[in-house]
Prior knowledge:
Structural class: mainly beta
Low-confidence stretches: none
Distance between the termini: 40 Å
Number of strands: 11
Shape: globular
Strand content: over 45%
Largest sheet: 7 strands, mixed
Helix content: under 10%
Order of helices and strands: EEEEEEEEEEE
Amino acid sequence: QVQLVESGGGLAQPGESLNLSCTASGGDLSIATMGWYRYRTLLIADIMSDGYTNYDNSVRGRFTITSDNAKNTVYLQMDDLKPEDTAVYYCSYASDYDIRRYWGQGTQVTVSS
Length: 113
């Protein structure tokens, strides 16, 4: 069983930055894909076990996903935030050897002036 704990959401003004983090207990990032979704439906960014990253067009160039395998933690650095980035962000974990996907509890990001 993998448990994901997210942190780092909050309120930001347009143009500001936020950093989300997600720690996977019981998981191994070296054999998994970690992703960040809005409302569990829109994939914003993910990072695969080989380090390959993928971004939605709406955030490419503004958001950066990184991982620290030693800490089993993935980060989403969100720069130049826009009001349309407002959403509940969910972290997900999917092992390379298991069809199950695990989800964090979600963290609210609100971008407003």
